[in-house]
Amino acid sequence: MIRHSFVLENASGEVIHGDLWHRQDVRNAPVVLIMHGFKAFKDWGFFPDICARLTESGYVAINFNFSRNG
After folding, report:
1. Which of 5, 28, 36, 62 is 20 to 30 Å from 15 by CA-CA measure?
2. How many domains does the chain have?
């Protein structure tokens, strides 16, 4: 399993930190976005486990922190 971290910056300079999860042999896999709720962040609780399990099942998973979170 591969986990790539990324940072996106908007025009105002605010950033979003995220992770892209996939298997080494991934080809044309469906993508699942994992979005946290209020008062949470991408590495909290079960979110990394969900991403890992989805990846093991052949999906690409993306999780991220909304701006001003995480």
Report:
1. 28
2. 1
